[in-house]
Every structure is written in structure tokens, then in C-alpha cells.
């Protein structure tokens, strides 16, 4: 029985050759050998070509700059035993020079495995198509985190002049999904880094972004990590602080107007007290008198605050 590898609908739509090549599928016989055709100087060729490794340069538009070295070494050992199962894709620069479009991990591992020739598809592409292909191929990787995906989406929109609907068609996602990823880039850097490093899930991040201010977002983020809050708990906390209830700076449930803006000193004091108590502290003052509100979400949370107050 043969095996098939495919790059997916988004990337294949960019590689405008015949119908078979658009699917980028390769039938692999049981002995893992791949039938190849010699590359010729006269433009793209059909099927798979055997190309000298030293005639291929890396893709300057590669969106991912770091590759795990241990994983590359493992792939190199597999290539030594089984060869290249899925060909790379390149574009021709000159008679004896090619540029990588997709498959950089396979390309780098092949060099580590001391391969002299590598199977490849040869395609025609300009610089913008190269960038688009590289970004879409990067997005289709299974091990990307939400921030890497969001950054790739943003680059496709800004550098390839795609609208969100067009982007969704390229990557096989609906517009709402694309929008949810792009919204992550509005979060404070500390939260983005935590998502990137898999310390915070996308579900947590999507809940946190629903509060208005970076201060509130960071407060919820720190509590989430410190207390290992579930997504549901974070959503409850967001509802508590987002202004949909009697939150600071928002409209109350009975429709009353927002309070007057507070001074920078009060804002700073609120921030200091919030950090001290681990909850969003609200100070209301008319300049002479006022009140301090310390919200809690449960009896356990109240006891935690009372312990801090030594009551």
C-alpha cells in the first residue's frame, strides 16, 4: 500500500501547475524510493526533480527562524535510513540555482545527513508569492502556538495585502477564527509571551482580551498563573471586572452613567492595592471623601483577603 503526503488546500492553491501537482501528493512505494526526473534549465518541470543540495539557498521569507536542533538531528537520522519521504518545494533562480519555498526542516536535516541530492518540486513564484507560500506552509504546521499563527496571519494581511476573508480562504479558516487569532496581538507583551511559551492557553487569552485595560488584563493574567485558574474561572473574573457589572469606569447594570475620571494618583494607588491583594481594587473619591472596594469571587477568596489584612 502506498502513502500520501499533502501540503493542504491553502498552499496548493498558490502553486499553479497541473491538477495533480496542485495537491502536492506523492505516492511512496513500500521500499520508500521516490521516482524522480532530472531537472532541466528550461523552467519548471512536472513531477519530482532530483536537485543538488548545494544548489539550493534558504528562503529569506521563512517566517520561523528557530528550529529545535535535537529534532533536526532526529530527522537527519531518519533521512539517512529512509530517505526523503516528502519532497521539498523550490523556485528556480538560474540554471544551477534554486531557492527554497517550503520544507526548510527537511532541507536542513538533509544537509546534516550529508545528502548530495534531494527530491523537490520546482515552481515559478515572485517574491510576494514566496512570502505567502512560506507563511501559509508555516501556519499549516501542527506545532505552532497561537501567537506564531497570529503573527503569520498579520504578516499575510499587511505584507501580502490580503483581506481577512481572503486570508481565511487561503488557510481554510472562517473569518471569526482569523479575527480571534489577530486579537491576541493586542494583549500586553507579557501575556503574548506566556501564550507563545505555552504557559497560557488560547482559551485563557481569548477570555482575558475581553477586558478593556492592559492593567486589568495583566491582573487577570497574573491571577490565572498564580492560582492555576480554569478558562471558566477566568471568564467569571472577566465578567466581574469588565464593566458589565458595577465595574470602574463603566455603566452599571441599572444604566447609570459612568463616574468622573479618577486622577493619576488614584489610578496608581488602585494598581498598587490590586497587586497587594491579588484582586482589582476600586477607589471612588470626590476629592474629599470616598470608598475602597475589594471584590472577592468566593468564600475562599474572601478568607485569602482577610489573611492579608490580618483580620
Automatic annotation (TrEMBL):
It comes from the Bacteria. InterPro entries: Chromosome_partition/occlusion (IPR050336), HTH_ParB/Spo0J (IPR041468), ParB/RepB/Spo0J (IPR004437), ParB/Sulfiredoxin_sf (IPR036086), ParB_dimer_C (IPR057240), ParB_N (IPR003115). CDD domains: SPO0J_N (cd16393). Residues 49-139 form the ParB-like N-terminal domain. Gene3D superfamilies: 1.10.10.2830, 3.90.1530.30. Residues 242-261 are annotated as: Disordered. Keywords: Chromosome partition, DNA-binding. The keyword DNA-binding applies. Belongs to the ParB family. This is ParB/RepB/Spo0J family partition protein. It comes from Chryseosolibacter indicus.
Amino acid at each position: 500500500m502506498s502513502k500520501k503526503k499533502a501540503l493542504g488546500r491553502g498552499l496548493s492553491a498558490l502553486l499553479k501547475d497541473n491538477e495533480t501537482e496542485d495537491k502536492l501528493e506523492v505516492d511512496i512505494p513500500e521500499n520508500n524510493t521516490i521516482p524522480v526526473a532530472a531537472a532541466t534549465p528550461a523552467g519548471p518541470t512536472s513531477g519530482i526533480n532530483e536537485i543538488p543540495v548545494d544548489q539550493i539557498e534558504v528562503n529569506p521569507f521563512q517566517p520561523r527562524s528557530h528550529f529545535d536542533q535535537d529534532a533536526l538531528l532526529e530527522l537527519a537520522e531518519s533521512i539517512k535510513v529512509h530517505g526523503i519521504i516528502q519532497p521539498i518545494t523550490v523556485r528556480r533562480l538560474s540554471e544551477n540555482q534554486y531557492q527554497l519555498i517550503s520544507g526548510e526542516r527537511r532541507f536542513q536535516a538533509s544537509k546534516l545527513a550529508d545528502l548530495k541530492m534531494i527530491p523537490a518540486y520546482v515552481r515559478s513564484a515572485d517574491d510576494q508569492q514566496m512570502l505567502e507560500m512560506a507563511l501559509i506552509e508555516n501556519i499549516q504546521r501542527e506545532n505552532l502556538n497561537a501567537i506564531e499563527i497570529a503573527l503569520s496571519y498579520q504578516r499575510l494581511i499587511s505584507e501580502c495585502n490580503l483581506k481577512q476573508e481572503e486570508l481565511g480562504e487561503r488557510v481554510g479558516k472562517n473569518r471569526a477564527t482569523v479575527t480571534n487569532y489577530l486579537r491576541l496581538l493586542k494583549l500586553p507583551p507579557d501575556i503574548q509571551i506566556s501564550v507563545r511559551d505555552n504557559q497560557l492557553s488560547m482559551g485563557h487569552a481569548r477570555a482575558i482580551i475581553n477586558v478593556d485595560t492592559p492593567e486589568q488584563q495583566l491582573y487577570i493574567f497574573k491571577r490565572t498563573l498564580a492560582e492555576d485558574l480554569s478558562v471558566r474561572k477566568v471568564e467569571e473574573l472577566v465578567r466581574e471586572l469588565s464593566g458589565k457589572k458595577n465595574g470602574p469606569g463603566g455603566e452599571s447594570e441599572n444604566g447609570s452613567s459612568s463616574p468622573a475620571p479618577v486622577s493619576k494618583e488614584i489610578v496608581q494607588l488602585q494598581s498598587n492595592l490590586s497587586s497587594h491583594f491579588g484582586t482589582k481594587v476600586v477607589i471612588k473619591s470626590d476629592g474629599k471623601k470616598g470608598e475602597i472596594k475589594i471584590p472577592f469571587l468566593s468564600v475562599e477568596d474572601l478568607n485569602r483577603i482577610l489573611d492579608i489584612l490580618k483580620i
